[in-house]
Write a structure and sequence with these properties.
Blueprint (H helix, E strand, L loop, with lengths): L1 H15 L4 H27 L1 H4 L3
């Protein structure tokens, strides 16, 4: 799992390298928020599949 995380982070850092530092911050914050939501959805699908059937 760690290898996957490192690849994702490395790709994200590479993809934003041409942006200003403040833009990088806002992009990474947005990515963080979206990944947090995806993580929560993954847990709901595993533990509460009936709640995610319509999604």
């Amino acid at each position: 799992m760690d290898e996957v995380v490192e690849k994702i982070v490395a790709h994200a850092i590479s993809a934003i390298s041409k942006f200003s530092e403040s833009d990088q911050y806002f992009i990474l914050e947005e990515v963080c928020e979206r990944l947090t939501m995806e993580g929560a959805l993954a847990l709901r699908k595993e533990y509460l599949p009936e709640d995610t059937e319509d999604e």
